Amino acid sequence: MSSSESVKSLTELVQQPCPAIETSKDGKPQESSEPPVSESQSTTPLPLSGQSALSIQELVAVSPELDTYGITKRVKEVLTDNNLGQRLFGETILGLTQGSVSDLLARPKPWHKLSLKGREPFVRMQLWLNDPNNVEKLMDMKRMEKKAYMKRRHSSVSDSQPCEPSSVGIDYSQGASPQPQHQLKKPRVVLAPEEKEALKRAYQQKPYPSPKTIEELATQLNLKTSTVINWFHNYRSRIRRELFIEEIQAGSQSQAGSSDSPSARSSRAVHSSEGDSCDGVDTEGPPEGKQSGLEADEYSNATTKSQGGQAESAFEVGEEVPQDARSSEKTESFHLGMESLEDTDDEGRLKAPRQSSPPGSQSSGETLETMPNSATEEDASTSAASTSVLTGESSFKSKESSEKMLSVPSTSSTLAAGSQKANSIQSLFSFSEAASSKNTRDNTLRKKKAANLNNIIHRLEKAASREEPVEWEF
DNA sequence: TCCAAGTCAATATG
DNA sequence: CATATTGACTTGGA
């Protein structure tokens, strides 16, 4: 196998900020992203005759694999070093809102897992990094913005002519009638901590709940069905993302040093599936950990501790994940311990102080673990299902290995490769952070993996019914 | 239809 | 002020 690196030429493309032809179809006030200045002098390569420039999308299509993690890392550096905000950067360079930028920078997905659309921002970032005047331009924008802002408030002694007058004084005198006319603000649902906990618990038992289950959850939690559905979609996808970043970080530390030794072969064993912590290797068993009193872990949560029941509920995180066959039973109805909160009445404020353990209330404490089910009829046992689940195989696409080259620790910026045009992409992404990845093996990881496994299982089952040689890549 | 991926935009936090 | 989080919406695939 030889990996060819012919990508080089593409690189050059990536470096040119061409005036995009943007096909902005939306009528938003959106600005065209790139500033009109597309200098890009460079001695230009582009042997292509006639072609003017490629649109970003075309660029994305031909772009070689980029190191998303490295890119975001550099972007963050440049931004903070120069006091440039995400909002400005996002709106000006990427055409995204602040929240999206934050998310992207904090949790970049690996290139090969991104869709064409998802790659676009990374290509733009790379382009921006290659632009020698990037910072300067952004600074200018910032100044202009500020100026405009100042001017605005100055001119009008007391604010005025905002674009959107009106609609300010919301008189909600009689809140009862839902006026059909104007839709009000739409109050953005905010799930209470208990609700999230309950949902997470449900997720661990069933990442892909049936419509029926969803209904039940919605009813029990007193939420809209769509909210529950959305929550599951979001949660699944966010968990997946977490796994990606772990994958990236874990993968990066491989080589040490000096020798070039590109080999990576061993890696396969490592990150491949992982889904299993099986492997035996595992070391450290005892999860004690206990880092700080509170778990910050988002996506995991306490999880069930199974103490008693058979059912197998979810896997325990504390221990090694059983990799055998864990079946996903189909308990259709379980009920979380939330009854308490459904008092309804409309009132909704059940604020829960985090981790309060009011003496006496059965609810909270129990809620956490529990193996609910039972309760009423319906023996859940029923199906054992256990279809033999995969073995630990890991199918991986061998394909490109993506090994990074060693890196330069140089802190600063810029790389400037400036002078040379030689930049091959590789140089662009040159360093893959060597940064060290600490060990992240907390049980957090395990929990996530466990959840992911569940997810995988679900997909496998689904696929099983349709026979298809799917290529999974967990 | 369901799902995943990408975003937005309101809110939370710092 | 900035950045981080997150419910909901949009798109595109099957």
Can you give a write-up of this model?
The protein is an all-alpha fold and 474 residues long. It is built from 14 helices and no strands. Helix 2 packs across helix 6 and helix 4 packs across helix 5. The structure holds a DNA duplex (14 and 14 nucleotides). This is One cut domain family member.
Helix-strand layout with pairing:
Layout: H1 8-15, H2 56-62, H3 68-81, H4 86-94, H5 98-106, H6 116-130, H7 134-155, H8 193-205, H9 211-221, H10 225-252, H11 267-271, H12 362-368, H13 425-428, H14 443-466
Helix pairs in contact: 2-6, 3-6, 4-5, 9-10, 10-14
The structure holds a DNA duplex (14 and 14 nucleotides).
Biased composition (Polar residues): 1-14, 300-310, 408-419
Region (Disordered): 1-49, 151-187, 251-419
Family: Belongs to the CUT homeobox family.
What distinguishing features does this structure have?
mainly alpha, single chain, 14 helices, DNA-binding, disordered C terminus, globular, 474 residues
Question: What's the total count of β strands?
Answer: 0
Number of helices: 14
Helix fraction bin:
25-40%
How would you state the average pLDDT, rounded?
58
Q: Rounded to an integer, what's the Rg over CA atoms?
A: 27 Å
Structural class of the helices, strands and pairings?
Answer: mainly alpha
Low-confidence stretches: 1-10, 16-52, 159-181, 255-444, 466-474
What oligomeric state do these chains adopt?
single chain
Which word captures the global form?
Answer: globular
Largest sheet: none
N-C termini distance: 23 Å
Write down the secondary-structure element order: HHHHHHHHHHHHHH
What is the strand content?
A: under 5%
Protein name: One cut domain family member
InterPro entries: CUT_dom, HD, Homeobox_CS, Homeodomain-like_sf, Lambda_DNA-bd_dom_sf
Organism: Chelydra serpentina (Snapping turtle)
Subcellular location: Nucleus
